Amino acid sequence: MENWIKLLDVAIWPATVLMLAFLFKGEVGKILTRMSKFKYKGIEASFDQELSIIEETTKETNKVLNEGSSHTRDSYNLTLERILQLADVSPRACVSEAWREVESVTISLMHAYDYNPRNVQMSKVFRGIVHDNGYPWSLYEDYRRLMKLRNQAVHAGDFDLSKEEAERYAMTAIDLAVFIDKLAKEAPNKSRQQDTSEAGASA
Prior knowledge:
Helix 2 (25-65) runs parallel beside helix 7 (163-185) and helix 4 runs antiparallel to helix 6. The protein is globular. The longest helix has 41 residues, at 25-65. 82% of the residues lie in helices and 0% in strands. The chain is mainly α. The chain has one domain (40-189).
């Protein structure tokens, strides 16, 4: 009899916990959902904050880099239009494609400075090019922030990215791509290569 009492004593608590879990599973689910929403609300707020900062700094970078230059977002109108169309279907895909455009022109910039993108960390090389050539440091800061936001948008599964935020990201990323494209086309290596080809042609 004593053994049965001990057995009941051991078994009663797990059984009670299971019964309570079954009875209140709806409430537990709501609590977990609220916790999840609270967590991702923080990410959403951070995304919007960081994006607002980049939108402001790109205006200043635009004044410095595009002064007296024909390089504007207009040259990327078709690319931007194609990327913005993705926001209706998938805001994440819109962000991802916009960042892909930034990476593409960054590779062009690295080639212009004789770097092999396969053998180096792209963000570090970009930072070095910005620093060594005295370009506005905000250019690298915007690059780093956009990269971070892209990673958040793609990898945070429950993060509710809105169409508007994706469109803002895409337009800002294309602005950055325009700046980097300008640097690639005006890189010293490009000038040397052009001088060499012209010298060969005149010879």
